[in-house]
Write a structure and sequence with these properties.
single chain; alpha/beta; Rossmann fold; 257 residues
Length: 257
C-alpha cells in the first residue's frame, strides 16, 4: 500500500536524486530512465523544492501521478542537496518512504567543473577569464553549499534516516559504471538484471562531457585551502581515506562532467 500524505492523498514519489552537481547526475538520469521499471516526469530536474515560491505540495505530487502502474517514480535535481532541513522535513511529510541517492565527486573537481559550465552557458571563453572571476565563483555561497557534502548528508539523514540515503561515488562511476547501476537498482528495488544485460557501449555512453580544461595552476592552492577541511571532515565521518582528493588540484586534474 502506498504511504499517505497527511491530508489523505497517496504519495506518488518513490525516490529522489539530490546531487551533487557535476557528479554524473545526467548520466544517472539517462541510465535510470532507460529501465522499464523506473519512471521520470518529462524533465530530469523539476526544481520544485528549490524554486517552490507559493506552490502547494500537491503540485509536486501531481507531476508523478500519470506514471503507469508497476513502476517506481522519482526525479534527480542536484539543487536539492543543499536544501534547508526545514524543507527536507516538508519533503519527508509529503513522501516519507523516499529512497534517496547522492552522487559525490571530489569537491575541488566539482567546483572547477561548475565554474567552467557557468562560463560556457554565458558564452565566455574559460581561457580568457581572469583568476578573480574564478575565485569569486569558488567562494560564492552557492558553490560552497554545493560542495558541502558532509552537511548535505547529515541534514538528509537526520530527516530520512541513515539507511534511506545511499551514497554513490563519481570515481567509481568512471571506473565501473555497471556495478554502480546494479547496486543502485537493488537499492531502488528494481530488477538489476537490466543493467547486467546492457552493452558496454550503452553503459559507458557519456552525457554532457566537460571541456577537459585542467585546473589552472594559479588557482590550485586556493581550491585546496577552500576544501581541505571539508575533505578531512567527510573522510572522518565516513571512515574513509580521501587523501587522494587533495592531490587533484596539485596535479591539475581536468574537467569532467
Amino acid at each position: 500500500m502506498n504511504p499517505m500524505y497527511p491530508d489523505g492523498e497517496p504519495t506518488n514519489v518513490d525516490f529522489l536524486g539530490i546531487g551533487a552537481q557535476k557528479a554524473a547526475t545526467s548520466w544517472l538520469h539517462v541510465q535510470l530512465a532507460g529501465h522499464p521499471q523506473i519512471w521520470f516526469p518529462a524533465v530530469k530536474e523539476t526544481h520544485f523544492w528549490d524554486r517552490r515560491d507559493d506552490r502547494d505540495v500537491s503540485e509536486w505530487l501531481d507531476m508523478f501521478a500519470s506514471a503507469p502502474s508497476g513502476v517506481i517514480r522519482g526525479e534527480i535535481t542536484p539543487a536539492y542537496g543543499p536544501l534547508d532541513e526545514s524543507v527536507i522535513r516538508e519533503i519527508a511529510r509529503a513522501a516519507p518512504q523516499l529512497r534517496i541517492f547522492y552522487s559525490i565527486r571530489n569537491p575541488i573537481e566539482r567546483a572547477w567543473s561548475a565554474a567552467l559550465m557557468d562560463l560556457s552557458e554565458s558564452g565566455q571563453n574559460p581561457l580568457e577569464v581572469g583568476d578573480d572571476w574564478y575565485l569569486e565563483h569558488f567562494e560564492s555561497a552557492e558553490s560552497r553549499a554545493r560542495g558541502d557534502y558532509l552537511g548535505t548528508i547529515r541534514r538528509w539523514r537526520r530527516v530520512f534516516g541513515e539507511k534511506a540515503v545511499h551514497l554513490l561515488w563519481f570515481d567509481e562511476i568512471k571506473r565501473d559504471p555497471r556495478s554502480v547501476l546494479i547496486r543502485l537498482a537493488s537499492d531502488l528495488g528494481v530488477d538489476d538484471a537490466f543493467y547486467r544485460m546492457q552493452t558496454v557501449e550503452s553503459i559507458e555512453r557519456r552525457v554532457f562531457v566537460g571541456s577537459g580544461i585542467p585546473v589552472r595552476s594559479s588557482l590550485q592552492q586556493a581550491l585546496l585551502e577552500i576544501y581541505a577541511k571539508s575533505i578531512n571532515d567527510l573522510a572522518t565521518y565516513l571512515d574513509l581515506n580521501l587523501k587522494h582528493w587533495n592531490h587533484v588540484a596539485r596535479a591539475g586534474g581536468g574537467d569532467e562532467s
